[in-house]
Design goal:
five-stranded mixed beta barrel, OB fold (Dihydrolipoamide Acetyltransferase, E2P)
């Protein structure tokens, strides 16, 4: 019993799909799509071996050429929505207890935080507004 070429292409596409899931390499997904294209050329249009390989190569290369730059651009972007302590950096707070290089208390985003001054020579008095420049553990660094 002889297996048709389109079935071999689908078996290859399945293997590439499994490898994609295991390795998370999007290039393998593009190769799998190319293999499906080659299976379609053989199964529906009766294309020969050369046509199948050409379709596989063209679809795979085009997919990689289009998807890779998009994936790199998305990987390089920072998240647009800051969460956790990153969302608190740059916000303003109100001093509740005098803040200097050794410590103090501020009200930040509705919560009371321990704080210390970024500049060791500077002190902030009660009621004064300060900017949060960093968070170290549970302490806000302010200026």
């Amino acid at each position: 019993m002889e297996i048709d070429a389109w079935l071999w292409w689908l078996i290859g596409a399945t293997a590439l799909g499994i490898a994609l899931v295991v390795t998370a390499m999007p290039e393998l997904g593009m190769l799998a799509v190319g293999a499906i294209g080659a299976a379609v050329v053989n199964g529906l249009f009766g294309g020969g071996a050369v046509a199948q390989v050409v379709v596989f190569a063209v679809i795979s290369t085009a997919g990689i050429a289009v998807v890779r730059p998009i994936a790199n651009r998305h990987r390089a972007q920072r998240p647009q929505l800051a969460t956790g302590v990153d969302a608190l950096k740059g916000r303003q707070a109100v001093v509740l207890e005098r803040v200097d290089a050794s410590g103090g208390r501020i009200k930040l985003a509705g919560e009371v935080w321990s704080a210390r001054a970024l500049d060791t020579d500077r002190a902030y008095e009660v009621g004064q507004e300060v900017d949060v420049v960093d968070i170290e553990g549970a302490t806000a660094i302010v200026m």
